[in-house]
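Lab meeting prep.
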Amino acid sequence: MNDKHIDAFDWIRFFAMSAVIFMHVASGPLRNPGGLGWLLLNPFVSLAFTAVPLFFMMSGYLLMTSVKTVEVSTLKVRLPRLIVPLVFWSVVACVWEAWRDRQSLMWLVNKLISMIRGPVAVHFWFMYTLIAMYLISPFLYRCFHDLHNAGRKWLGILLGLILLSSMVSLALPENLAVYASVKPLEELRFFGGHLCSFLLGWLLGTMERKIPNRWLILAALANWTLISAGTWYLTNTTGAYVSRFQTQSGGFEILLAACLFLLARQNLNQSPGFLKFFAPLTFGVYLMHNIFNSMLSHFGMVPSGFTSTCVKSLVVFAGCTGFVALAGLIKPLRFLTTGNR
């Protein structure tokens, strides 16, 4: 969307895509708490949950800094790049599920029709939210892009208050969290709270003043520790996996993602060739990875601990990257799988 390539985003995309894969592969073992394997998985998954906020932050920055965004006609070019791959991979997911579960043709037809109402696979929810943000991006651009310093500061303060309110609500026991909920701030959590990540990416990406790396690292480590410890405490107390602290639209994960976003923007000004190769594949890999993950599980590759989760994550990453890269060699298939022309 911007003419200038942003090398830091290559690093963020690579990390976020790896994190999403690890997070979904680990979803099974995490639901069986106990033992060293779970204790190792917990902090890595706590870090991995920053992936979605990071994707929204990059989208927010790219859309809100592109002069093309203000033109509604631009949507005719941008939306097909999201919708066509979503439809393609939704069809693949439906066909796979129908074959795996021995469903009827009528079931498959109804499942395909249901993609109009909502995602047919759990990880596709992100696409529906992103498409909605694209639809209102010309409005968002006109509202926020030309804000003066005072307006940007007020927006930053407002986003900070929303995130702080979310963090307090998540940290308190459920019977007390309702008393800490600030209704006006709750009402501002548009798109399930993900609009905060979207706008925060734009504010942080265009911020002229640099935050010292040591403060960002300390804040990231402290927040990461809090998320991991909170998840362990709630899980240990209830005997079942509780991911409240790891909520992707919650203040803890967004704050951690913001620290990672700034560290990358301020320090990673060059990306090696393999990252430049991978960056255009990210979208296709995201849409494919959980389908391939399901296929591997069906044929017996089911992780049970930390090591097996890492191994399967690598297999999913390599398999999806290889397939999407090969598909990219065929122009029509490249557009269907990745949205790239």
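Slide two material, second protein:
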Amino acid sequence: MRSHDHGIWTRDHVFLGHGHSRAETRAKWAAIVTALFMVVEIVCGLAYHSMALLADGAHMATHVGALGLAAGAYWLARRHSGSGRFTFGSGKFGDLAAFSSAILLGVTALAVAVESVQRIVAPVDVQYGDALLIACIGLAVNLISALILKDDHSHHGHDHTPGHSHGHDNNMRAAYVHVLADAATSVLAIVVLGAGYYFGLGILDPISGLVGAFVIASWSYGLIRDSAMVLLDADADPEQSDEIRAFLESELKARIPDLHLWRLGPGHRGLIVSLITPDAISAETVKATLRRQYPDLSHVTVEVAVCDGCT
């Protein structure tokens, strides 16, 4: 049955995250700021022969693409929010962008690791003073981008628990993690360039590249795992799925042979549930019961089968 209540059970399939337009604007500005310094850092890294600086610049280049991808995903999700072509709305454009960004992070980590090993085998002279100055400016740029992207949900870059991520914006999280990774490599570059400049510890430069590659790869893995689970329509929260099942069985005295809970977009989840009851009960009654207990469900489909002999 189709509900005539267009509140929580809306059928318009617009499942964009809260503050979608603001997030799109922030992603655009972060991309612009990062791009302006990207060219400077890469050119100077090549000129001064610094692996730490070049790794930071190359990594920043991937962020320009990632931030542009994030902004593009917000635009596409907004543009197609009312399209009937997408069965459950366009809310997953951001998760698709996050998955792509995570792969880009992983490729970057591999490239930095390979180049660092080559520098360990065949060391090159590094102009530490000039490279150190550029690295400090790079860190400042990263912090500016982080401030642009940061909001009350900036902790998303650290929360990988599937059961607690249904309200998170993986697209913004991917953009924020890219900037955090850049800031981390900038700090590392400053430390090792300072060590090389003041103490002659040149070996730390390529070693820092390996450390940075490991950190980037670990963040890439977390993003790939979480965004892939959303794209594959994995159970958004196994614990809550069990809770909803137990609630319906207790409240309506029904058996639940089939239940699926998945993420539709930031802050939106869908639920499909089948019930077997001894007494006739309407789908609207089931939805109303769920509405009282779980107001965060955005799209619910209910199937009811009556079994006269069931107890």
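Talking points for slide two:
The radius of gyration is 24 Å.
Residues 238-306 form a domain with the Alpha-Beta Plaits fold (CATH 3.30.70.1350).
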